[in-house]
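Good morning N.,

You mentioned wanting to compare the apo and holo forms, so I went ahead and generated the holo version with manganese (II) ion. This is what I fed in:
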Amino acid sequence: MRIAGQVSLDDIPNICPLLSRAANPQYGEEGTRVVDVAGVRFGGERAVVIGGPCAVESHAQTVGLAQAVKRAGADMLRGGAYKPRTSPHDFQGSGLEGLCILSIAREETGLPIVTEVMDPRMVPEVARVADMLQVGSRNMHNYSLLAEVGRTGKPILLKRGMSASLCEWLGAAEYIAKQGNLNIVLCERGIRGFPSGEYSRYVLDLNVIPAAKMLTFLPIVVDPSHATGVSAMVEPASRAALEMGSHGLLIEVADLSCGEPKCDGLQAIDAATLARIVEFAGARRRESEVRSQKPVAVAASWPAN
Ligand code: PEP
Ligand code: MN
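and this is what came out, ligand included:
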């Protein structure tokens, strides 16, 4: 039986002629498109580690954390000036002032910045400051936002919708690519499953890393912070993601001695933990220079959606 709108991974070359591995044989079976963000290379030889606060709250908080993230050895700074919150009455981010603080943090540390843009009308403003634009989980299906960020030509971090299939996620990436922008990094951030919220925030779908790599040449990173929602789980989840072939990590960091963050404090790690994760990522690279990394073999035919 065929059902309207039903797609499977076999349809990916048609859905994604610009991004699928099958439609772009120049990448071969294992090649990755390296996405360069101000000298930080996603999909290069080394896993990229991005650290920083959930939200930009103040100059002191963000610049202090940026310095700690830099000392921990991470490659980039994250931080939302615009925050998608469940309640419209909660802190929505510090907006333009937050963008200004992010650019000061970059000047102070030299770390490139990734920050979220939620509204197509705000894309030019955010793109003026950001080295990389983040499209959040809730906006993965926002096709006009995807086209707008695509038109900037800036590198895009495209988070997976929390209930999105791999087909839908890659289709969303194709909307960006259709604007002539192939500088896209996928970010797995946990999906909804039946235990979500019982002992972790979402279900970290590690299996999607090798699956995505088989279907597209885009780099893929993991956000263990939103995936787990529990600070003690972030370090082991980071290690697991790297073992599964993640090209990098996006991690929330806080300095609790400066007070409770306005959002997501329970999943934030401290700078010392971040430094251990950076060390693990580096050690793993040295090891992989010895044992060459082959993609995991997956069953020849994909289950239908
Ligand atoms: C974030 O990274 O700040 C964020 C809100 O994540 P997500 O879109 O994955 O929920
Ligand atoms: Mn957060």
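The CA atoms of residues 232 and 259 lie 19 Å apart.

Happy to go through it together on a call whenever suits you.

Best,
F.
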